[in-house]
């Protein structure tokens, strides 16, 4: 009887340990630390500073930015957040095409704007914790003239690795801006996603 | 000055005539009319003037124009920082004014920045925010462009009570107005791509202008109210997609 009880307890303990072990990978990853988020953004803005000051322009700059975007941002999640509810009605083929078109659109559009940061020295100035949604890391580009340009990045590791989700240039968020613009483009396309994709591809 | 009052008064008369539609933007019908007007003014006056300026100046010259015009704002910046209770920032504005007006060749060069005294502009709209005055509705003013009710009051007070008003003659104040106009053309030239993108490449330039203005304005105000120094921030979780 006693032996039986012990065995049963061992079995139960073992079983719950096994269940816990199995449950572990399903648990949400621990929130990204401010330190890790800041280090990640530091690496990103240094690379961005290098791109901005490399003197590249046009298609070459757009290509480099695309590489940068893929390396540091969670592009599909950003693209999905931008288009919003229509995402649910899209086929997987359409989703892939839309994400690629969104990438073309964003890099084409912002490649023209990076002149503002030219000659600037980038530095991380601090961060604020946004809980599960991630960490907002603040950085600035100090230029030879005028007030420093503030650049903040929202970083989260919910995808498994730290990734940038949103970017705020002087407080203006890329996702909010593109939500308005892309949704207006979709409305202008008669809510036809394929027509929107063609427009985003330029 | 009288023209400025007429513009503000006209704006409010126009506002009174429209019915609220969007609770986030109760003055939207009026604002959209003003936006069309401002876009027209940009097309026929501001953009051509900025391109003309761009043709005869290089980046350094445009920086000098911006420095010169910004330097003339430093007394008002210092006064507003005092009203916000930020004596340290006020002292820095005053020091920048003295240094740049002398070492910086009358303000053409930002010598103070080289000494670590970075620009830190502010205005009475931000002072009102610091005092707890709410932002109020978004207003696109004719000529003056995007504002909130609070920043419109701030703009009027800053214009009426600029410290220079007490020290300069009427003729000198006219020059100050010309410099402000030049500053506007210069900024349109310096950030030409950004203005063109918002005004001419957006599917809805009105909403693009409103969003960019309001988000930028709120980020600036957060710095003044020190909300930006909080350790936490509310962020949207982009992985929550219903």
Describe this structure in words.
The complex is a heterodimer of chains A (202) and B (242). Chain A has helices at residues 2-23, 34-52, 58-72, 75-83, 92-111, 174-188, 193-200; strands at 121-129, 135-142, 149-156, 163-169, 172-173. With 202 residues, chain A is an alpha+beta fold. A five-stranded antiparallel β-sheet of chain A has the order 1-2-3-4-5. Mean pLDDT of chain A is 86; it is low at 8-27. With 242 residues, chain B is mainly alpha-helical. Chain B is 64% helix and 3% strand. Chain B is built from eleven helices and two strands; from the N terminus they run αααααααββαααα. A two-stranded antiparallel sheet of chain B has the order 1-2. In chain B, strand 1 (138-141) and strand 2 (145-148) form a beta hairpin. In chain B, helix 3 (59-71) crosses helix 9 (170-190) and helix 4 packs antiparallel against helix 5. The longest helix of chain B has 29 residues, at 28-56. At the A-B interface, helix 4, strand 3, strand 4, strand 5 and helix 6 of A face helix 3, helix 10 and helix 11 of B.
Strand content range of chain B:
under 5%
Instruction: Please state the CA-atom Rg of chain B, rounded to the nearest Å.
Output: 19 Å
Query: In percent terms, what proportion of residues of chain A is strand?
Result: 15-25%
Shape of chain B: globular
Count of β-strands of chain A: 5
H-E order of chain B: HHHHHHHEEHHHH
Output the structural class of chain A.
Answer: alpha+beta
Coarse shape of chain A: globular
